[in-house]
Amino acid sequence: MSQLILQKANSDNLITLQKISIETFSSTYSSLNSQENMKLYVSESLSDFQLIAVIRSSSSECYLAYKGVLQVKFSR
Length: 76
What we know:
Low-confidence stretches: none
CATH superfamily: Gcn5-related N-acetyltransferase (GNAT)
Order of helices and strands: EHHHEE
Shape: flat
Strand order of the largest sheet: 1-2-3
Helix content: 40-55%
Radius of gyration: 13 Å
CATH topology: Aminopeptidase
Strand content: 15-25%
Structural class: alpha+beta
CATH architecture: 3-Layer(aba) Sandwich
CATH class: Alpha Beta
Mean pLDDT: 88
Number of domains: 1
Distance between the termini: 28 Å
């Protein structure tokens, strides 16, 4: 059985972090918002610039959880 591995996210993980963030946001909120609003939020809040700022912020920590393959991203 594979062990769960937590890895603190860094700028090298940007694409993975962005992909998971967009998938999670879309699956959670797409039924409640217009496609236009979804695209706007993703482009403004989940952009490379914004995610790098979150990764580098001293007031937040982002982790990627792996169990064989990437499973989930979480922030604190």
